[in-house]
Amino acid sequence: MPQIVKDTLENSPMILFLAALVIAPFVIPNQYIVQIMVFIGIYVILAQSLNLLNGYIGLIAIGHAGFYGIGAYTSAKLTVDAGLPFELAFLCAGLVAGAFGWALGRPTLRLEGIYLALATLGFNLIVWLVLLNWNSFTGGPLGIKGIPRPTILGWEVDTRTEYYFFILAVVVTVVFTMARLVNSRFGRALVAIREDQLAAAAMGVDVTRYKVQAFVISAFYAGIAGACYAHFVRYISPDSFTMLESFILLAILALGGSGNMIGPIVGAAILIAIPELFRAVAEYRMLLYGLVLIIIMQVRPQGLFGGHHYNLHLRLFDRGPRRTYRGDAFLPSEAEQ
Amino acid sequence: MISTGRHMITRRHIMSAISGGVFVIAASLSPQMATAQETVKFGVSLPITGDMAEYGSFIRNGIELAIEQANADGGVDGKKIELVVEDSRSDPREAVLVAERFVANDEILLEIGDFTSSASMAAAPVYEAAGMAQIAPTASHPDYSGLGNNMVRVMAMQQAESQFLARWAAQDMGKAKIATIYVNNDWGVQANAAFVEEAKAQGVEVLTEEGITPGEKDFAAVVTKIKNMEPDAVFIAAQYAEMGAILGQSRRARLQTQFFNSGAPQSPELLELAGSAAEGIAAAALYFADNTDPVSRAFTEAYVAKHDVKPNLFAALGYDAGLIAVTGARAAGGERSAVAPAIFKLSGFQGATGGFDYTVSRDPVKAYARTTVRDGAWVMFD
């Protein structure tokens, strides 16, 4: 059997899943469901971005909505006020968020564990307060309205279904680049730092540099997600970038499982869909939402897809020798199971 | 053995929880059963859970009262009106999803909600694209009604209330030095800006403008700062939670001055929270429980009969939104896109929060009553 066929077979579940997503809006012509899927897509990007920090390098960052908000406001300001084309504003959203990631990361990444968590929490709070209070620039609590629909090289992303495909393309790009990244030398360095920072440093891994780089990359993706949100809902206000959003992202990782590519996707899909599925019980739905979280945490404390058995092996694009490396093979939790 | 037994119980519990979940999922996914054609459905998007749930429930009570009365009065073309209430938590993202849900449901004729301007405005493009009327009981953002041809505002523009208060303070009470405090959200910023603008136009010196973060509880710093400036009056744009705290802390700091309030007039909760510190504050009321206006009085009586408590402004606005929705539905002949145009032809509308004409402006202009607190009760100011 030629290698290409073998690789295709090995990747066939993913290819089938992607194909199902592509035909989904035609099979389910319900705009409401398409809309939920768009939001799931946005949260997949966010969760993947946070996963790089919390899952791969083991930094506890709990203020990710800050970068999300910066991305959303950057893209909105650039298209509404500066009249920049969408493609450029979209990219700038990521770059500006990345720059903030660098500015936050440089001084705070010397901190460990709970201290870093508090610093990122503080960052989220500051971003929210600035968005809320800088009336002349961000519109304060009035937010920014009239954000244009995306236009990509002449294609105006107009309907919900078109936006769905746009988000799908972004999500696939994000997941693909992330998968390549974490399976590269860079990704292995991150895992090494997570497992044992001292040992990693002794092996010649520049710990601080990798941490800052991971932080910037993560912030970049969160910024991109912000731009996706801003141009989809087309009206943004600080309400959407509170710490509650950061906690939702943490819950997604806790529920789906972190440190691999599948967990954040599953977590985002479940956590965004659950409140919608439970609409029938009206005022009790958030109660059920909490209950589901508790049950899953009881049954699978590492998350539904916790651990590294669930990595995406993109054989089709990975021409090197087969790697048997498993990221968390040395985790005590893995040994106990 | 014991541990196995416990384990089985846990598992059975989980199974029942899962099957319960599956049932709920199935129930919510199954297409709404076509309940014949005897009903007309109104979508209601409000915070039922979360931080704002309290306001959502007041508005919901008001809407339900209006709909009950309309149903007793023949419904819409002989069909009963049914409310489909969905929880948005006033989160813009969820409000968009609720909007999409309503729009996708052919049986829903129009929508009432959401509570915050942010949530209403995020959902507006969805309603506008579907040509469905979005009747927002409380949205006060100046741009809300301009977002499309289907956005119906029920609340009076905040500017009018603030200007009314500023003129009251400057012209009638002769206050020359005023400090302001406002909640830093979309509503508070505008309430404050309009007050300050009108006050300055009246020749008043505005000493300071202090923004407070929504949900804050300690205002000692703000109160002390203002006390040292010795103002003639203090204008506070805040709902009862913050307002009550500010009044109580001002009393403790011995800041004695005339307080003006926008945001909590007529609220019984304010009286409870602030106690005697609320005595003498001045507020402009759109809705006033002891108002002698017949529509307003009928609403108050019906509400008290049903819920055994006096309604507040939110309930009254919900009631008015319900009345407007019913009027629109009756004129629209079951056609979604005809609801908003029918509403905008409405003139001489009388609601619990006063009368106005949509033909004059799509932003209702309403009259205010001067009220104050005396002996622990809201009364007319004299």
UniProtKB/TrEMBL annotation, chain A:
- Principal location class: membrane
Localization per Swiss-Prot or TrEMBL: Cell membrane
Task: Report a single Gene Ontology molecular function.
Answer: branched-chain amino acid transmembrane transporter activity
The regions listed as transmembrane in this protein's record are 15-46, 53-76, 82-102, 114-134, 163-182, 212-232, 247-274, 286-305
Q: How does it sit in the membrane?
A: Multi-pass membrane protein
Keyword Transmembrane helix (UniProt): yes
Write out the entry's keywords from A to Z.
Answer: Cell membrane, Membrane, Transmembrane, Transmembrane helix
Cite a GO CC annotation.
Answer: plasma membrane
Q: What protein does this entry describe?
A: Branched-chain amino acid transport system permease protein
- Organism from which the protein derives: Ruegeria marina
UniProtKB/TrEMBL annotation, chain B:
- What residue ranges are annotated as transmembrane? none
- Which keywords fit this entry according to its UniProt record? Amino-acid transport, Signal, Transport
Q: Which InterPro entries match?
A: Leu-bd, Leu_Ile_Val-bd, Peripla_BP_I
Instruction: Name any Gene Ontology BP term.
Output: amino acid transport
Keyword Signal in annotation: yes
Q: Which Gene3D superfamilies match?
A: 3.40.50.2300
- Which family does the similarity line name? Belongs to the leucine-binding protein family.
What is this protein's record name? Branched-chain amino acid transport system substrate-binding protein
Question: What is the source species?
Answer: Ruegeria marina
Query: Top-down, what is the taxonomic lineage of the species of origin?
Result: Bacteria, Pseudomonadati, Pseudomonadota, Alphaproteobacteria, Rhodobacterales
